[in-house]
Amino acid sequence: MIVEQGTCKEIQEQTLTVPLDEKSIDDLFNRAGQRLGEGLHLDYWQMHYDQDEADEMPSRSRLELFLMLQDEKTWMALEVAKDLEPLSFLPPAEIMAAVDAKDPAFKRYDKHLYLDANGHFVAVLNTWEQPVIEEEMARSDFVGWLRNVPRKPWALALPYELGGEARPMYPDFLVVRKDGDNHIVDILEPHSPALSDNYAKAKGLAQFAAKHAMAFGRIEMIRIVGKDIRRLDLIDAATRKKVLKVDSDAGLDLVFDIVNA
Q1: Are the CB atoms for 127 and 224 separated by under 8 Å?
Q2: Fewer CB within 10 Å, N- or C-terminus of the chain?
């Protein structure tokens, strides 16, 4: 199975030519997602997308997934594996974390989904992450949280576009809250306005929210301004619409100002 510039080869001994524009590639990738279900196409992309692909051919892994699903043997193997599918969604029993006990930047946190032998999660949170998680932990409905570490096999990755290239983003926190007799998960992304990927990641998060809002309690882009925590509620359709229209960091700054006025 080969992906070349503009051509997908070896699909049932035929050649299918696909224009290399983002719309057609997204359409093929979304078709693969519909066939797999459960967001597995995003899992595949997260696992196989790397910097080499970004430099050489940003669409390679998305096209390769579509091609694999055209192969009869691949599809039959997926059908056979359906009974085992739930096992692949189990979180790891433990995660590895590099901790320097002598470094004062490392702090102990409670109620993380993974704890050390002393019942703590030890990590370095930056100046826009720490106040957000502290405010979350003070909520009466707060149950627990997960630091979503970038590029870990178990991490949640969402697609966004920057400079015409599709890339994965890793929202900082998944927060679990009590919702009546059930639990609900929030996606929270504290982000520094000084970073150059601000509006691009906000739009990616908004696009994800447009498709998956019903599966989460909150999906938020967050900033720290002085002592204030400012939030964009991307579950809210009106806020999401504003974010999807921005095409610069200055435009996103304006949305933050309007929504948090």
Answers
A1: yes
A2: C
pTM: 0.66
Residues 85 and 113 in one domain: no
| 134 and 210 fall within a common domain | yes
Residue 49 in tokens: 């997308």
β-bridge partners, 123: 107
Number of structural domains in the chain:
2
Q: Which residue has the higher pLDDT, 11 or 256?
A: 256
- Residue 232 — very low, low, confident or very high, per pLDDT cuts 50/70/90? very high
**pLDDT above 90 as % of the chain:** 43
| 101 closest CA partner among 75, 72, 123 | 123
Last residue of a domain, one of 62, 89, 116: 89
Q: Which two tokens stand for residue 202?
A: 């906000």
CA angle (66 as vertex; 32, 82 as ends), nearest 5: 55
Beta bridge partners of residue 232, listed in sequence order: 221
Parent domain of 60: 3-89
Is 210 or 154 the better-scoring residue by pLDDT?
210
Same domain, 243 and 162: yes
- Whole-angstrom distance, CA of residue 64 vs CA of residue 71: 11
